[in-house]
Each structure stands twice: as structure tokens, then as C-alpha cells.
Amino acid sequence: ADYWKSQPKKFCDYCKCWIADNRPSIEFHERGKNHKENVAKRISEIKKKSLEKAKEEENMSKEFAAMEEAAMKAYQEDMKRLGIKPDDVGSSSTQSKTQSNTVETKAKKEKKEKKEKKEKKKKTPQDASMPSKIETKEWVQGLSPEGYTYYYNTKTGESQWEKPKGFQGNSQNSQTGAEWVEGVTEDGHTYYYNTQTG
């Protein structure tokens, strides 16, 4: 052979040693006295640990039970000192919860009724006509260079040929025939717009 090939090896966790990774070597090792003793030792360690863990959990549960019992005794003694029966405490707390819930629902109903009344007051005929008045104030009348009448919305900047609904015209300008139109911006400032020149 021109080259050397290493034999695969296997590590035995029980014995902490390496053995050849082939069936005869593994079987020979596992039949050995040391290996069997190490396996038995590992199994006994696992059993011992599991028993210790079970005992520890049992002790913990006993301690918790003792703590709960002591807390319950202290609670009952406190209730006796205050002159309250322990049974009354649970029922009174549930009663107070239900009472608070009914109070909350009544308050919510009252708020809803108030809101509905306010909304009804807002929806009166006078209020319905108000937006159209405001809208008509936003529109101004102008003349195009060709002499045609158009309408300009000072709020939106929109212009149209048709007369807006509810538009009453600019009384000052119609009397004087002036080319300047007075307008109001969104923030309440007054400005003047020339209908001839734009």
C-alpha cells in the first residue's frame, strides 16, 4: 500500500476511552468487566439523582403547603380580631363589584342620553341653513376679460360659470360696478380681488 489509512475510532462514554469503531471491538469492549461496572455505576447515579430530585420536589411542596396553611390561619385570626366572618368578606367583595358595575352602566347611559340631546339640538332648521350662508359668503362674483360673469370661491380657490346655490351677489360691487371684490381668507383676513385682471 502506497498510503496509510487511519482506522475509525469510537469513544465510550461510560469508560471514557477510545476503541476501534468496528463490530468485534465494540462487542469485546461491552462484554468486558470494567464496561459493565461503569454502566451499572452510571445507572445507579441516574437513579440516585432522580430520587433526590423527587425528594426535593416533595419537600418543596410540603413547605408551600405549610406556608399556605400558616397564611390562612393568620388571615382567619385577623378576621376574628376585626370581627368579620371570613365568609362575609368574599360575598361583600362580589356585591361591591356588581354594585360598581351597575353604577358604571348607569353613568354611561346618562352620558349617551346627554350626547343624543346635544346632537338633536344641533340639528335644528336654523343650523341647517347656516352652512349655506357661510358657503355663499365664500363665493364672489367676477367678470372675465371677455365680459362673462363667473364665480370664485375664496376658500377653495375654485371658480365656476354657474351661480352657486344660495349666492346673493356682492351688493356693494353690483351697485358701484367696481372691478374689485372683497374676500375673506380662512384665517379671517380681508383681501381684495380684481375681477377684471384677476
UniProtKB/TrEMBL annotation:
Task: Enumerate the residue ranges of region (Disordered).
Answer: 78-138, 159-178
Record's compositionally biased regions (Basic and acidic residues): 78-88
Residue ranges annotated for the Matrin-type domain, each copy included:
10-41
Q: Which residues lie in Basic residues bias regions?
A: 108-123
Segments of skewed composition (Low complexity): 91-100
Keywords tagged on the record: Metal-binding, mRNA processing, mRNA splicing, Nucleus, Repeat, Spliceosome, Zinc, Zinc-finger
GO MF annotations in UniProt: RNA binding; zinc ion binding
Compositionally biased region (Polar residues): 168-177
Q: Which residues form the WW domain?
A: 139-166
- Where does the record say this protein resides? Nucleus
Instruction: Please give the name of this protein.
Output: WW domain-binding protein 4
Q: Corresponding gene?
A: Wbp4
